């Protein structure tokens, strides 16, 4: 049976990886919606001419009307990198989370479609429970510089559950932890892309703070697996469910690993430099994925070591082709 699947944020990092996976199934028609603020059509260039793929340039802050019947919605649209979602974009970020959720929930309601919300580990804020379980209610600073994203996503979660309670909308909520891999934007500002691009260009790696803060990094193919599994899970399992890799590393460990790998490849004399830690930067983060394992039969398969190799290869090609473009200008 043919399924029409709408993906907001479809030209972004995770969205474009999801589009590429879902289009492989001949029964899927994909409608990719994005305002291309942090996404790019380059990310979907190789599938844009597929007759089962449609791109709509649209900002989900505004309502969206689609003529054809939609079966599933993956709501991924939102800038997710701190430098992209903060500063003068903060109000826009909250609006994307909140108005975007309402607009997409309305679309789901009209179509009787299933809708998946990409929430975030940021709902736990500076966590006092470690590793983070879904029942933990978090420790978010509601007036800090990350609040636009954290509280925006928390409000989106509550909207999803209210639509489910009030209208019976078929919802699924996942909380995505740090994710990396091909199709990340080199200028996105997040730690994995920054470190790898700095290393490949022979620049110093910028550690914010003393590098003792931890994160858990999930390779994007593993994440796409669990997103699809969640959408296809039993109707009564609505989440929220943590989706991430429980391997926990300090930021200094990550920098050392990237330096070791890129030094082997390029024989550069790379080093780290320290910069101030941004406000409200969480000290530690690691998902407890017991729920995802038991309800979805999912756990990540790609370790950081292997995922970093693939990601370094991706960025090396990308930097090379961008340099060649400059030479040809
Ligand atoms: N970070 C860093 N150097 C960078 C970019 C980020 O040390 O060039 C740190 C950042 O302060 C945070 C961690 O790496 O502690 C992860 O940052 P990222 O922006 O990737 O995601 P977050 O988990 O903070 O949303």
Topology:
Elements: E1 3-8, H1 13-22, E2 28-34, E3 53-57, E4 72-75, H2 82-85, H3 90-111, E5 114-120, H4 147-167, E6 170-176, E7 179-180, H5 191-200, E8 205-208, E9 214-216, E10 218-219, H6 220-231, E11 241-243, E12 248-250, H7 251-266, E13 272-275, H8 290-296, H9 304-328
Parallel strand pairs: 1-2, 1-4, 2-3, 4-5, 5-6, 6-11, 7-10, 8-13
Antiparallel strand pairs: 9-12
The protein binds uridine-5'-diphosphate.
Residues 81-82, 178, 190-191, 194, 206-208, 213, 215, 251, 277-278, 281 line the site of uridine-5'-diphosphate.
What this model shows, in words?
- With 329 residues, this protein is an alpha/beta fold.
- It has helices at 13-22, 82-85, 90-111, 147-167, 191-200, 220-231, 251-266, 290-296, 304-328; strands spanning 3-8, 28-34, 53-57, 72-75, 114-120, 170-176, 179-180, 205-208, 214-216, 218-219, 241-243, 248-250, 272-275.
- The strands form 4 sheets. A 7-stranded parallel β-sheet has the order 3-2-1-4-5-6-11, with helices on both faces.
- Helix 1 packs across helix 6 (220-231), helix 5 packs parallel to helix 7 and helix 7 (251-266) crosses helix 9 (304-328).
- The chain is globular and about 60 Å long.
- The model has no long low-confidence stretch (mean pLDDT 97).
- Residues 81-82, 178, 190-191, 194, 206-208, 213, 215, 251, 277-278, 281 line the site of uridine-5'-diphosphate.
């Amino acid at each position: 049976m043919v399924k029409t699947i709408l993906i907001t944020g479809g030209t972004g990092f995770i969205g474009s990886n999801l589009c590429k996976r879902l289009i492989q199934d001949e029964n899927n028609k994909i409608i990719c919606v994005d305002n291309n603020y942090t996404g790019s059509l380059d990310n979907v260039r190789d599938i844009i001419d597929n007759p089962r793929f449609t791109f709509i340039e649209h900002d989900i802050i505004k309502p969206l009307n689609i003529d054809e019947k939609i079966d599933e919605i993956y709501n991924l649209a939102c800038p997710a990198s701190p430098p992209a979602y903060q500063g003068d974009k903060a109000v826009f970020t909250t609006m994307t989370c909140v108005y975007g959720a309402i607009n997409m929930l309305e679309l789901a309601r009209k179509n009787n479609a299933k809708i998946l919300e990409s929430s975030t580990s940021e709902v736990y804020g500076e966590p006092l429970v470690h590793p983070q379980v879904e029942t933990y209610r978090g420790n978010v600073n509601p007036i800090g510089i990350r609040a636009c994203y954290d509280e925006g996503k928390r409000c989106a979660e509550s909207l999803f559950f209210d639509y489910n309670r009030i209208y019976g909308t078929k919802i699924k909520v996942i909380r995505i932890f740090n994710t990396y891999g091909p199709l990340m934007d080199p200028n996105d500002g997040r730690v994995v892309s920054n470190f790898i691009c700095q290393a490949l260009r022979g620049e110093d790696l910028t550690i914010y703070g003393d590098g003792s803060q931890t994160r858990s990094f999930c390779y994007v193919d593993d994440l796409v697996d669990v997103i699809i599994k969640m959408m296809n899970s039993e109707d009564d399992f609505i989440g929220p469910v943590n989706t991430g890799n429980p391997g926990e590393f300090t930021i200094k460990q990550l920098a050392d690993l990237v330096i070791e790998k890129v030094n082997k490849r390029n024989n550069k004399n790379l080093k780290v430099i320290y910069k101030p830690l941004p406000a409200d930067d969480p000290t530690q983060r690691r998902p407890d994925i017991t729920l995802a394992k038991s309800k979805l039969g999912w756990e990540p398969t790609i370790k950081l070591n292997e995922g970093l190799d693939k990601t370094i290869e991706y960025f090396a090609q990308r930097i090379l082709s961008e340099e060649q473009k400059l030479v040809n200008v």
